Amino acid sequence: MALKDSIQPENIQIRDWLRLRRYDGHFELCLPGYQNPTVYQNSEGIFDESKIPDLNYVERMCKYLANAGELYYIEVKENEIYRPIGDVTVKPENPPIAIWVNDYHGKGIGSLVMEAVMGRLRDLGYRKITGSTVYKWNIPSQRLHEKLGFRRTGEEENEILYEADL
User: Fold this and answer.
1) Residue 157: exposure state from Cβ atoms within 10 A (0-12, 13-18, ≥19)
2) Predicted confidence band at 139 (pLDDT cuts at 50, 70, 90)?
3) Considering the entire predicted model, what is its pTM?
4) 3-state secondary structure (DSSP) of residue 106
5) Residue 134 and residue 23: Cα distance in Å, rounded?
6) What is the DSSP string of 120-147?
7) What is residue 56's three-state secondary structure?
8) Which residues contact residue 80 at a Cβ distance below 8 angstroms, ignoring those fewer than 6 apart?
9) DSSP SS3 for 35
10) In the sheet where 151-155 sits, what is the strand order?
11) How many whole angstroms separate alpha carbon 147 and alpha carbon 128?
């Protein structure tokens, strides 16, 4: 769903090797990523490996995110072909980002993607991101938020809440 009656772009090019590609309904591409226990824990806060999501769960999640904002696959170019390695939803409240492929963790991709999300929201006229939720055990995501100028606005039992001016 487009935000503020805008048209969601097919691609948002971040670097020559990194882009966001508009979600096209192929939720099955996300399944292996969310079956990664670390990704699932950091995304949903669930540590019970017996509750790793199935295809129906991922389909419902993708439909929800696509209706809540602009859902994109995060893609990297490998051997001249773009490969999905995660997903992100552009929306002004709690924009979720997940890097599914362990080989791409800790390489700064999350920061580049979140900067692109912030830029897209700014271009659409939004002034703030609110309610960005990070689990307390997800130290890399906390660092990402703080590096990009997000401020802590609250804390719950397992979560830290952030916001940022755009």
Assistant:
1) exposed
2) very high
3) 0.94
4) coil
5) 23
6) HHHHTT--EEEEEEEETT-HHHHHHHHH
7) helix
8) none
9) coil
10) 128-135, 159-165, 151-155
11) 16
